[in-house]
Amino acid sequence: MAPGERHAEPVVGGKPLRALVLEDDPADFEILEHHLRAAGFRPECTRVETEAEFAAQLLPNIDVVLSDYKLAGWDALRALELYRTSRLDIPFILVSGTISEEVAVECMKRGAADYLLKDRLGRLGPAITRARNDIAEKRLAESLSSRLLKAHEEERKKVARELHDQVGGAMATLLLGLNDLDSGLPPDGPAQVQLQALKRLAEENVAIVRNIALLLRPSMLDELGLIPALNWQAREVFRRTGMEVAVDADDACDHLPDEYRTCIYRLVQESLQNAARHAKAAHARVTVREEPAQIRLSIQDDGAGFDPRHQKGMGILGMEERVRHVGGVFHIDSQPDQGAQISILLPRGRTGDGTKE
User: Is 145 a residue whose pLDDT tops 70?
Assistant: First the structure.
């Protein structure tokens, strides 16, 4: 059978399995198909040999990728690069002759789900089943985590609205009442002194409620858009900490889905807080760019810096999780005494609920 052609299996019992097989030896391909059938699958396999064939056949309808290590002019390490670039959520299993332990470990580091020797294919069926189950569990965990994150954001929005409308409104009414009392009291009496103290206390609490509501969920993010919210955040950071923040964002970013606007806002919020509080930065710059295939976010500061390999707090882990929920890529470039730059790439072509169009 020529590479790129699908092997039509008779319709018999077994679990359907669509496999993309990187194999340059037709005889080894036939043996692999035999073991798939013996493992209880009803395989529909596509054999490819070249990079171009592999890239063309690496499609969402594939259930598993089975790859030899040594191919004509390339190898499984390059195949894993193409596989990771595709962002497909399917298992990649190395099925090869004898290779060194170092090469096998490197393949696993680059995303391979398992490694099997060609002379021990009795483990092929269980390996595929386990890898697919692992991905199903990962999808379920990510779905639950994503729902929890969305519910958390909705609760923040609700609490912020209640604080602003109910508590803030009540405090404002109290302040108006105190002002009315002010006009009816002698200007120099002891009651006037007490009243002025109550007015100051009420004004301070109005400001506190307002600030808490804005930190929970700034209304301008929903009403005015992402860029005004980022600019407000930059001013607030400067007011609270003295760190100067420059915001450079494309106007088109105001039309991003709510999921993206919230994600970007929270990433900037956490990053600026870390830069001011922990890194003691004097300056920071936030850049948001809309590119044809992605949204690029960068937050750079001139603070103390750190070693990302050994110093990852809960804040950074939370940011990574937010980015992962929308299918993005998160990267930190930092060294002690050299500041830090956080770079995020968010894929285009997603709807407001985070699913691909």
Answer: no
